[in-house]
Write a structure and sequence with these properties.
The complex is a heterodimer of chains A (301) and B (87). With 301 residues, chain A is mainly β. Chain A has a single domain, classed as Porin (Beta Barrel), CATH 2.40.160.40. Helix content of chain A is 9%, strand content 54%. A 12-stranded antiparallel barrel of chain A has the order 2-3-5-6-7-8-10-11-12-13-14-15. Chain B has 87 residues and is mostly helical. Chain B is built from 4 helices and no strands. The chains are: A mainly beta (301), B mainly alpha (87). At the A-B interface, β9 and β10 of A face α1 and α2 of B.
């Protein structure tokens, strides 16, 4: 594990060293930016919350395994509708690749789908002059839908996952989505709650030749805290998921908590190194109990 | 009029980001430090700026996908509205 840690740190800092120059990395970032692509860990409905794509070295505390993990998701161009309304509706296709050589959960999945985002109302905002238009709600809902059709190369099967969720946002003090700032106007924190339902169709999940098909509801809280502005970011992500009318061999209640910390050297927020600790029933690991520490090389545009 | 649009666009950005207006600078990217508006907030900001633009020029609009471009900064935002207002 020591060698892997050193390797990840060396790659991170050598990349950052060339970041300000006209490097291949910066050219690639610019090309992707010009095409309006986005790269993250996943676009599974938790996409707006700044989790970068990552190459990580992980230690599973529930077994003797140490393993490598790749989580890469690309959002392709967006189609925006309702262009003249007081609403926003956007559709976008995405492609994801998730690979892990954890011997207890070997993974190699290619995932495609179309997601949408719907903002039905405007948002009122404080401290605006009274002669400016400022209609909307103090706290407003917004909706996300995701579809995910995965080719699982390990079992040679296809998986389906559909998710629909509601969140809330506001510009007012202490409410969801509010930007907490310090005395120097540095951004320090924000949080979002989520409420949603999801449908899963998962062949060979627990038993070979048996397909687990089930729906869940979930509540989730995500918080992003910048301990050092623009440099050190802490993410806390907790989800309670419960299977509705459970006819599967899975547990009915599936809580999970993931905490991660990322260091972005050199006053940039595209490339960093991070550490994540995850404990609970992971929907990305067969809904089984996991307790995993990860060292991550992270990339985000 | 251009100066008024510039001032008002900065006022909207400052309000949505919870920043002091005097700390909102032309070269600051909407998504990055220090403004740090995420895609969700930029969607709502687009609705607000759309209403403002329509109060000047009813046939024009502002899109969320325009504001969400990675390198979109404060200057590009008010210039976009000035251009769409036909000034």
């Amino acid at each position: 594990m020591k060698n892997a840690i050193i390797l990840i740190i060396v790659i991170a800092f050598s990349s950052v060293k060339t970041y300000g120059q006209d490097s291949t990395f910066i050219k690639l970032n610019k090309w992707l930016t010009d095409k309006n692509f986005a790269i993250r860990q996943t676009f599974d409905g938790s996409k707006n919350e700044n989790k970068p794509a990552s190459l990580s070295y992980q230690e599973n505390h529930k077994s003797d395994n140490d393993f490598l993990n790749v989580d890469l998701a690309i959002k392709l161009s967006e189609l925006e509708l309702l262009k003249n309304k007081r609403s926003v509706l956007i559709f976008y296709p995405k492609v994801e690749w998730h690979k892990s050589n954890d011997s207890t959960d070997i993974k190699n999945k290619l995932d495609g789908g179309i997601n949408f985002e719907y903002i039905p109302f405007g948002l009122k905002s404080p401290n605006l002059s009274s002669d400016l238009p400022n209609k909307g709600l103090i706290i407003s809902p917004w909706f996300q839908g995701t579809s995910s059709f995965k080719r699982n190369f390990i079992g040679g099967v296809y998986e389906t996952k559909l998710t629909f969720q509601l969140s809330l946002v506001s510009n007012y003090k202490f409410l969801p989505g509010y930007s907490f700032r310090d005395g120097n106007d540095n951004f320090r924190a924000r949080y979002y709650p989520y409420f949603g339902v999801e449908y899963n169709h998962l062949p060979d999940l627990i038993t070979k030749e048996v397909t687990e098909e089930f729906s869940t509801y979930f509540v989730r809280l995500f918080a992003e805290i910048w301990i050092i502005p623009q440099t050190l970011q802490l993410n806390i992500d907790g989800t309670y998921r419960e299977i509705v009318n459970n006819e599967t061999s899975l547990r009915k209640s599936l809580p999970i908590l993931a905490s991660s910390i990322y260091l972005y050297p050199g006053k940039q927020e595209s490339l960093g190194i991070g550490f994540e600790y995850k404990h609970g029933y992971d929907n990305n690991s067969k809904f089984q109990l996991v307790q995993i520490s990860s060292l991550k090389l992270a990339w985000k545009i | 009029m251009k100066e008024t649009i510039k001032t008002n666009v900065k006022a909207y950005i400052a309000s949505f980001a919870n920043m002091q207006r005097e700390n909102v600078m032309d070269d600051q990217i909407l998504k990055n430090h220090p403004i740090k508006l995420d895609d969700t907030k930029l969607g709502f900001l687009a609705i607000a700026l759309r209403a403002y633009l329509k109060s000047i020029k009813p046939d024009e609009t502002v899109l969320a996908t325009e504001l969400r471009k990675k390198d979109f900064d404060v200057k590009k935002t008010y210039e976009l509205l000035i251009k769409k207002a036909g000034l």
